[in-house]
Write a structure and sequence with these properties.
This protein is of the alpha/beta class. Helix content is 30%, strand content 18%. A hairpin with an 8-residue loop joins β23 and β24 (662-668).
Length: 926
Amino acid sequence: MTTTPTPTPPNHTCQDDRLLQTTCPYCGVGCGVDVIQRGGMQGQLSQLTGSPEHPANYGRLCIKGTHLLETLDKHKRLTQPLVFGQVATWDTATKEIAGRLTQIIEQHGPDAIGLYGSGQLLTEDYYVANKLMKGFIGTANIDTNSRLCMSSAVVAYKRAFGEDIVPCNYDDLEHTDLLILIGSNAAWTHPVLYQRIERAKLRNPAMKVVIIDPRRTDSNTLADLHIALRPGSDSALFCGLLNFLADNNALDNPFIEASTNGFDDALKAASSWSLEAVSEACDVPQDYLNTLYNWFVELPRVISFFSMGINQSTTGVDKGNAIINCHLASGKIGREGCGPFSITGQPNAMGGREVGGLSTMLAAHMDIEDPEHHQTVSTFWQAPNLITKPGLKAVDMFQAAADGKLKCLWIMATNPVASMPNRALVEKALTHCELVIVSETAAKNDTLRFADIVLPATGWSEKNGTVTNSERRISRQRGLLAPIGEAKHDWQIISMVARAMGFEDAFNYHHPQQIFNEHCALTSANNNGARALDLGPLATLTVAEYDALRPQQWPLESAHRIGRERLFANGEYYTKDGKARFIAITPQKPEQQTCTQYPYILNTGRVRDQWHTMTRTGSASRLLKHIDRPWLSIHPDDAKRKGISDGSLVALHAACSGDIKVILPAKLDDRQRKGELFAPFHWSATWGSHCKVGALLNGANDALSGQPELKHGAVSATPFDAATLGVLFGESALIDVIKTSCYYWLDTTSGSISCTQIADIVPPMQLLNNVVPLLPHNTQWYTFQCANQCSLVATHKGKVVLSIMLNTSSLSIPTDWLESMFNSDDALTQAQINSLLHQQPDEAFMLGKIVCSCFSVREKTITTAIEQGTNSVSGLGTALKCGTNCGSCKTELASLLSANHKASTLPKPNNDDTSANTSVTKETLL
């Protein structure tokens, strides 16, 4: 197993200090986290690092994980139950929910109830929710936001292997000869794994890395080849690869004969996909395809590492199976450094799959339609109402609520109004639904305003249970602090409601260890080797053993609690006949096609320092330093044709968006293909008036998995003609009053001090006159106005409380400059007031955006160091400290090095004509 250098453990200065170990709550990597608690059991959490011994990260953490403690803001938390807007006791809330659910079941049947959960739930939460819905209420209408993340991979694996099994390990990424990243910008979405890949390529320079992605991203800093294919054409590319393997004597015929079925049909379906046909379908030169295909043939070990670019598609399942087909045909599976590796985006999407937390599953990798499985679960749970048919998938669930068929929707640990596609439909669904229950940690998000009953749940640092990462490794997420206010664990909340509904014996849990043991026992029930998921050896843990549980990877050896790393090494699978299945694939185009009215393809995705809808990361001001606002990436040629300039506002519309207006600042980006746009999805109505990107995607989804297409929308893009552009900066309570009087607003900070970008269709002076009546009367005002701009500064006892800067042109005002004056203990000088009024920041703050969030190192500082001779990422780290903490910025540092040098010692990307040459040394990514 590969190990890497890790941070030195902190020195303990107090004998009462405790080292607490838990798991990061962000992506599916599942990094171990060490936290120092100062002053004993009730002490303060004071220092956080990666766990050196955890096999997922060996001490590494990304920028988000590194700054977890900065997200623990009790003032932004729900602390009491609310029933129809009124504070209530838990007893009142529980009885109200139980009574209403019982009434709905009596009047409309159990299928009138739905529960929409989250990969943020712990396995124990998931298990109890699944048991209540499928075994006792009697409906399979329990689905989760994991449907949006990896459900296509689930179906693809199950079709091929007979069970939902990810057959690879993280170590495989470091021991392969060819790593193909497909629809994954791992440098930003899974930075810790990307750093392991960086190190592997340094140790083995012969290792090839191929990026298959329409965009050129930060992950390209490692690429030997970039296949910038037409969006949605991945199936054609891999059908072409299967055909190429057959035509070039690269099939593993003994393996195909002994361990698979369906090869002839799969090859027949792929036989028309010649290099010429794939080149045309994918819009990729044949030379690049030939290079990729030959590497796949010639190099002995290949990992296909795929993520949302594959899964979030109307044909995501077929894309996954097209990839798997190639590994089966070549025999590059079941051994070190080989296999189709789906990487998940959530911390416990795998745990949810294990317990059956999707509407198309039963429990413990057992199937709803299988009579033996049904009998096993029914007997084990003593379930009076065990389901006999699948339930509604996520998109269908909200459609049913909008149609009036679903009378109650319980939303748990997720924010679907912001994260689901087709926002107009989701809002309609929650408006029409008779009873909306929301279990949530955050006091503010887009979904809460639709809730009839709000339940305060525990969050990271309080939750206590287990999660399973993308390599099937179970880790403990331990409670570090007592719950805030009256918040309760999700499994407690569900159990309280279940008992109030009359299911006392089945939900009499007092500790998550009881639930975990029951879950493990169910995975073992009537298993006898038929399912890889068998956690029986863990089913008898005591509370002490559960509390001390170390990371465990399944399948577990039956005799002891040690996981087995390698799957399928013996060529046996979990199908009825023990053979893997090839699937015949017929590539299809994405459902949301462009047209004259909506001519641009819209792709959505993540940014480096944010996660999901920012209810956690948005609380840490440091995580808003790198990128503080959403944007729209557009190719410069497209922008020129539309009259769009860098930083100007662009209005977006789609056939499904209705009256919802989306307006984003433009980012001219030659890394985009022409005719294609990209926007991050994190920002929502909580953050701005016009950044509801989910409204632009219509909810089209894979017929097999139900996973929505989030990578191929069809939109129009036109300049938004604003008469006024500006910035509000000041006390948050005051800004919140003023910003809503503007046509467009977008918050770019969080906390007691706010910075808000604004725009309006009225000229600056008129807008200022509109907001003046909203200003506090106990302040002194200073104003300045001229033809193109006007400004106002309000002070109280010499300290600034509000700055309004309005202009007819786009403003670039560094937030750090404004914060420096607001945070100063001294009264403003006249020179500072004048600089605010004239919208002229100090030169010291005009150093560009922050690249390294850990040490606040800005872009111009970095480029200056490069121009002065620093030519490696490690050199920049030595000179400026950037990249020396979490390492999340190292790919961006490499990109800056590449952009600032003409000569190159690295090979030029084969099919990327716009990429700059580089003289980056071999130690660049160390």
